[in-house]
Write a structure and sequence with these properties.
heterodimer, A: six-stranded mixed sheet, four-stranded antiparallel sheet, 9 helices, B: mainly alpha, MetI-like fold, globular, binds adenosine-5'-triphosphate, binds magnesium ion
């Protein structure tokens, strides 16, 4: 896998750039997924299908299992029962195969988690070199293109701690993109950020969505959901309570739980 | 008084003293490298997901840390080298050197392991999760992300462990490798009679070697610190 040069290739599959309509079949499929933490039943019979190129926003009260759902899709958390398919393949057990599959699923964390002892450029290049076994020069070129794209190219030689939260999160997105993932997971990517930095990150995410990246995003940013998502999934107590288009969900929620939750976040 | 501060014996025997310290330095440098390797391997065992490896690591570290170094050195020299005839070389000085090195390295390795393990605990969980999420295997994640950060955060404590190791060369020297500085001093006491000047000469020698080592590790710890 070497980059043939040209513009940064951001998406794989999907309906192609600038195609907002989901299509091309399911990319992530969860069937009857259950997960416990000891006594606590955190995921209850989750069924969810994400189409290629689709952007799904996951929303719900604290402790409802949104993070756990995200983390189970790249098996940072193992599940107790049910199946999770990514691009038609079941998640393998721990080991080399799992590592390879994880590389196809990008993950962006609330706390950025950039590698603290490596420069910005090294953070972005590490995966392509060590996991994809790309050559160094091509990886560096691709990494710089991605940093350019998220607006951090001029900080490539700095260390994560020298950057603002918003900048770090954009680097984290570039680091995920460098692996050319089939789908990207975002777990509250803006909730650790100061208000003035939220938009710079959401802008990058919105443009990714435009380019056809398949995304599962845990966020309470309704502006983003309206602008970029095709579907909103509302979770409560480990269950998917409601699933609808953003417009329908925000203006016309069907369940009491969802209406109650929306009234709380809207008054903030 | 004149007798007490007459350093002619020190200067007359300077070549002997320097030879002793040169042997100490060789011993210390080799032990430093080996104890870091042993310590890293033990630490990897102790944080391994495999219970058997964890158990082996914990057992070895507890045994090594709670046994006096003299005993370990005697076991190596009298037990393994003399009785079981496990020899590194037929030349006694070479054999002594490597048994002294072995004893001190595994002993110090246990302390390196514990320092490193406390460093591993300072690395936030998110670092390993990010590493796994870009597709690094757990071995790669340990090697490229966790251990480098762990090492940097414990350079100070590692410095203390290695300085203790430096001084412990005198203990293994007494048992296994009688050509290093402390053993040379004893020999000189034996030949020339114990004298304060000779003692001071050796003490200054150790000081000259160890003080800069301490400063070096302090400087390195600052320089290599990982900002979060
Ligand atoms: N490692 C863990 N061990 C035990 N319980 C856990 C663990 N991680 C999460 N939980 C519990 O599982 C439930 C779901 O957690 P999760 O983090 O998925 O919720 P969330 O919807 O992401 O909440 P938030 O909005 O606060 O991030 C919570 O009750 C939480 O306390
Ligand atoms: Mg969460």
């Amino acid at each position: 896998m070497t980059d043939s040069g040209g513009g940064p290739e951001l998406t794989k599959g999907g309906g192609g750039p600038h195609d907002d309509t989901p299509g091309g079949g399911p990319l992530v499929v969860l069937e009857n997924v259950n997960k416990h933490f000891g006594e606590l039943h955190v995921l209850r019979d989750i069924n969810l299908t994400v189409q290629r190129g689709e952007v799904v926003v996951v929303i719900g009260p604290s402790g409802s299992g949104k993070s756990t759902l995200c983390r189970s899709i790249n098996r940072l958390e193992p599940i107790d029962s049910g199946t999770i398919l990514v691009d038609g393949k079941k998640l393998p057990e721990e080991g080399k195969d799992l590592a390879r599959l994880r590389a196809d699923v990008g993950m962006v964390f609330q706390s950025f988690n950039l590698f603290a002892h490596k420069t910005i450029l090294e953070n972005v290049m590490l995966g392509p070199i060590k996991v994809r076994k790309q050559d160094k020069a091509a990886s560096e070129r691709h990494a710089m293109e991605l940093l350019e794209r998220v607006g951090i190219a001029n900080q490539a030689g700095k260390y994560p701690a020298q950057l603002s939260g918003g900048q770090q999160q954009r680097v984290a997105i570039a680091r995920s993109l460098a692996m050319k993932p089939k789908v990207m997971l975002f777990d509250e990517p803006t909730s650790a950020l100061d208000p003035e930095m939220i938009n710079e990150v959401l802008d990058v995410m919105t443009s990714l969505a435009r380019d056809g990246m398949t995304m599962i995003v845990v966020t309470h940013e309704m502006g983003f959901a309206r602008k970029a998502a095709q579907k909103v999934v509302f979770m409560a107590d480990g269950q998917i309570v409601e699933s609808n288009t953003p417009e329908e969900f925000f203006t016309n929620a069907r369940t009491d739980r969802a209406r109650d939750f929306l009234s709380k976040i809207l008054t903030h | 008084m004149d007798q007490l501060f007459n350093f002619t014996e020190v200067f007359d025997n300077l070549d002997k003293i320097l030879t002793g310290f040169w042997a100490t330095i060789r011993l210390a440098v080799v032990c430093m490298i080996l104890s870091m390797i042993v310590g890293t391997v033990l630490a990897v065992f102790r944080v391994s997901p495999t219970p058997v490896l964890r158990g082996v690591g914990t057992f070895l570290v507890n045994v090594l840390r709670n046994t006096p170094l003299t005993l370990i050195a005697v076991l190596c020299v009298s037990g393994l080298s003399d009785v079981l005839a496990l020899r590194f070389s037929d030349a006694p000085s070479v054999n002594g050197f490597w048994w002294a090195t072995t004893a001190l390295s595994i002993y110090t390795g246990a302390f390196v392991c514990e320092a490193l393990r406390s460093g591993i605990n300072t690395v936030p969980l998110g670092q390993a999760e990010a590493a796994r999420s870009i597709g690094l295997t757990s071995g790669q994640s340990l090697r490229m992300i966790i251990l480098p950060q762990a090492f940097r955060s414990v350079i100070g404590p590692l410095g203390s462990v290695l300085i203790a190791m430096f001084k412990n060369t005198a203990i293994v020297g007494a048992v296994a490798y009688a050509v290093e500085a402390a053993a040379t001093m004893k020999l000189m006491f034996f030949d020339l009679g114990a004298s304060l000047p000779i003692f001071i000469g050796f003490a200054v020698g150790y000081l000259i070697l160890i003080l800069p080592t301490g400063y070096f590790f302090g400087w390195l710890a600052k320089r290599m610190a990982v900002a979060r």
